[in-house]
Write a structure and sequence with these properties.
By secondary structure, the protein is α/β, with parallel strands linked by helices. The chain has one domain (2-131): Rossmann fold, CATH 3.40.50. 42% of the residues lie in helices and 20% in strands. The protein contains five helices and six strands, in the order βαββαβαβαβα. It has helices at 10-21, 55-60, 76-89, 102-110, 118-131; strands spanning 2-6, 25-30, 46-49, 68-71, 94-98, 114-116. It has a six-stranded parallel sheet with strand order 3-2-1-4-5-6, sandwiched between helices. The longest helix has 14 residues, at 76-89. It is globular, with a radius of gyration of 15 Å.
């Protein structure tokens, strides 16, 4: 599977490493080259400096052949914009978008974006731990 990941923070770098170790073709984008230090030493994918809401940068990352796109930057707005571009302009089959704000997450889900909110997931885990 060919995957483009936008955001090389802890989650993006970890996901890139996991997918690469499983033999997938991974390209990870970030606006800050220093972020790539988080990638595993044996990472065999491609690390590209660039903004994932820029169509030319996405093309350079191989979005036109991608099977999946994951947006995991710190910014909900950037993640949503990039996910929409990947889904509606480049017709990437699988697009996943991280949204911190639970209200936005619900809204974007109703608009057809596959979203994950670590805020709601972690709050639910804590609630279950407290109640057990």
């Amino acid at each position: 599977m060919k995957v483009v990941i936008m955001g090389c923070g802890r989650v993006g770098a970890w996901l890139a490493g996991l997918l690469d170790a499983d033999g997938h073709s991974v390209t990870i984008l970030d606006t800050d080259a220093y972020s790539f230090r988080r990638l595993p030493p044996k990472f065999g994918g491609t690390a590209l400096i660039g903004n994932g809401i820029n169509e030319e940068v996405l093309k350079k990352a191989g979005i036109e052949e991608a099977d999946a796109f994951v947006a995991v930057t710190q910014g909900d707005n950037r993640n949503v914009m990039a996910a929409q571009i990947a889904k509606h302009i480049f017709n990437v089959p699988k697009v996943i978008c991280r949204i911190y704000d639970p209200l936005r997450q619900e809204l974007y889900s109703t608009l057809g974006l596959e979203t994950i909110s670590p805020t709601t997931i972690f709050a639910q885990i804590l609630k279950e731990k407290l109640e057990s």
